[in-house]
């Protein structure tokens, strides 16, 4: 669970802090602390466990130092862009895009890095982006909520008996 906090250098630390401050603060205010922490924990778990499982099939992935700042940053930017689709964002103070376009930009940059540096190197980032996009998919979210509701209902039980509404004691007997 601590791998997302390890950065490769001072520049990646600055960018990770900047993303947490700019995009994370808006999401924290909008979602509340509980949903924000659950979202980040889910992304980190999916990326970490998924990388470990896929690394069983791609042995080269075990030897790479997977750092987590980009995973969390990409997921936060995608979540922010989904939450605020019409807000403008300046990319490197050169290109101004809206939230809707920002999702495509993040996905394109992640895939481009994976093509040039190798899938094994970018495996956590690819899984993190995929998890963020899956969270963005409303149909997948509805399926998850149905599973969660079915699980909750399975834990509940109906208790028969007791006092019903129409059997209240109106006779005045004590």
Task: Write a brief caption for the model.
By secondary structure, this protein is mainly alpha-helical. 64% of the residues lie in helices and 5% in strands.
Structural account:
- The chain has helices spanning 10-31, 33-55, 69-83, 99-117, 123-136, 138-155; strands spanning 88-91, 95-98.
- The chain is mainly α.
- It has one domain.
- Strands 1-2 form a two-stranded antiparallel ribbon.
- Strand 1 and strand 2 form a beta hairpin.
- Helix 2 (33-55) packs across helix 3.
- The protein starts with 9 loop residues before the first helix and ends in a 19-residue tail after the last helix.
Class by SSE composition:
mainly alpha
Low-confidence spans: none
Tally of extended strands? Answer: 2
Strands of the widest sheet, in order across it, are 1-2
| Mean pLDDT metric | 79
Strand content: under 5%
Q: How many distinct helices?
A: 6
Largest sheet: 2 strands, antiparallel
| Element-level helix/strand string | HHHEEHHH
Alpha-carbon Rg, integer: 23 Å
Number of self-contained structural domains: 1
Spatial gap, N to C terminus: 62 Å
Determine the fraction of residues in helical runs and give it as a percent range: 55-70%
Shape: globular
Q: Top keywords for this entry?
A:
single chain; 174 residues; mainly alpha
Detail the topology: elements first, then pairings.
Elements: H1 10-31, H2 33-55, H3 69-83, E1 88-91, E2 95-98, H4 99-117, H5 123-136, H6 138-155
Antiparallel strand pairs: 1-2
Helix pairs in contact: 1-2, 1-3, 2-3, 2-5, 3-4, 3-5, 4-5
């Amino acid at each position: 669970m601590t791998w997302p906090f390890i950065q490769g250098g001072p520049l990646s630390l600055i960018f990770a802090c900047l993303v947490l401050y700019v995009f994370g603060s808006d999401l924290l205010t909008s979602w509340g602390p509980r949903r924000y922490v659950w979202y980040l924990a889910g992304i980190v778990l999916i990326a970490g466990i998924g990388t470990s499982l896929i690394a069983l099939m791609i042995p080269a992935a075990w030897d790479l130092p997977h750092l987590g700042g980009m995973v969390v940053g990409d997921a936060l930017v995608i979540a922010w862009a989904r939450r605020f689709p019409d807000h403008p964002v300046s990319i490197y103070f050169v290109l101004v895009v809206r939230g809707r376009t920002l999702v495509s930009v993040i996905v394109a940059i992640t895939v481009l890095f994976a093509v040039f540096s190798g899938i094994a190197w970018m495996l956590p980032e690819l899984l993190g982006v995929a998890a963020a996009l899956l969270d963005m998919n409303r149909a997948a979210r509805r399926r998850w909520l149905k599973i969660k509701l079915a699980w909750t209902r399975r834990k509940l039980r109906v208790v028969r008996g007791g006092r019903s509404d129409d059997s209240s004691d109106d006779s005045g007997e004590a």
